Amino acid sequence: MATTLAANRIAERKLRDKQARRAQIISAARRIAELEGWSNVTVRRLSDEISYSQPVLYAHFESREGILAAVAIEGFQELGLALEKARKRVKRGNAVESVGAAYLEFAASSPALYEVMFSLSLSVPFGEAATPPELRFAFSQFLELFQGQSSKSEVLSELFWASLHGIAELTRTKRFPRIRQKERVRTLVELFTSALPPASSTMFPRTSALV
Amino acid sequence: MATTLAANRIAERKLRDKQARRAQIISAARRIAELEGWSNVTVRRLSDEISYSQPVLYAHFESREGILAAVAIEGFQELGLALEKARKRVKRGNAVESVGAAYLEFAASSPALYEVMFSLSLSVPFGEAATPPELRFAFSQFLELFQGQSSKSEVLSELFWASLHGIAELTRTKRFPRIRQKERVRTLVELFTSALPPASSTMFPRTSALV
DNA sequence: TTATAAAATCTAGCAACGCTATATTTGATG
DNA sequence: CATCAAATATAGCGTTGCTAGATTTTATAA
Description:
homodimer, mainly alpha, Arc Repressor Mutant, subunit A, Tetracycline Repressor, domain 2, 2 domains, DNA-binding
């Protein structure tokens, strides 16, 4: 059979098409969620957006929740990159402040994306080995920030992450007024930098049990 | 008419019955949510639990979300009381640690309740005047904790609350392992107490813009 | 080039959801 | 006991996530 000649090209095209459509679905879900909320991201609506019938979606994702999980992972990837960028080129002041501000900026500029990233504890695999690399990468940015700090680097990373997440969530759900956000960041950074001196950058045990 | 005689008793009985049924609904919602998750708290299921048809539920609450809001408010009330208790009789160490531990204990022991308390930003009125008193009372426990502290008491309260909320959420959604929770609290308390000295308990401006 | 097998896609429908218009029953009042 | 209102139930609408089965499209062969 002359399969390996033309058939390969066909298979590649089909793969490309499939990947493109998958990206379309994720993109549509994100856009609708950001504009109209996640409750408007229905399977029917998505199938309309990509001009295919509903069952096609289930060839790409196991369920509606699978689509949200894919969006969430994309979000973690982008968050990780944003944090890395903020950490590496420390604009003004220290890296802690830079990362903290970048985190809250991310959460504020894509509230629906941020929301879905933390509302799917069961779908997005977690814990040790099965945690998606995008999640590990994002959290590693916090680890780098406090690396080698009095053997508490991991707890400090967790606490800084938790603090920022708390601020982001309480702001998103309107419990914190957006005003005074800068003051919050400044004070938070003070807490995390003044209490524990800037450490030398050696020894990073990295026994993170979390991510 | 001899209404004011027997009719009053009847009206009172009806009111009692109505309140009792309302409490039943809230209680059933809480129980099901804690045992089977909020997705299993359906109107049909609730109407089964209280042995009434569905429309009866709508005589008590405007919608399903109204029921969740009632549960959330009950949760805030209990949280506020738990925090007040922890703050007043400082078991060991300082009040900050006591309140922090009590907060996380509350969140861990009733995860579904805690979840609904922070997933209804739009239904539970917020912001300044319209915020339910149960919410204000709970947050006031944090304000008391840092009251009069270098004119930053409000921001510190917000940050401490946000940190605890972040820990609670990341723990609930399995991003933080439950192990090491004590160490987290200890370190967090260090950050909030060592960085800023215990202040004298005078002057509490109380210009809280949040709650 | 056309028949056939397989892959891709759609139609149509199920069960369950929140919610409500309407019918029915219950209970207080004369 | 009759009447009228209040309380409650029945039955159904529109929408949801999801899927079995029919149908079309596409690739491979004669």
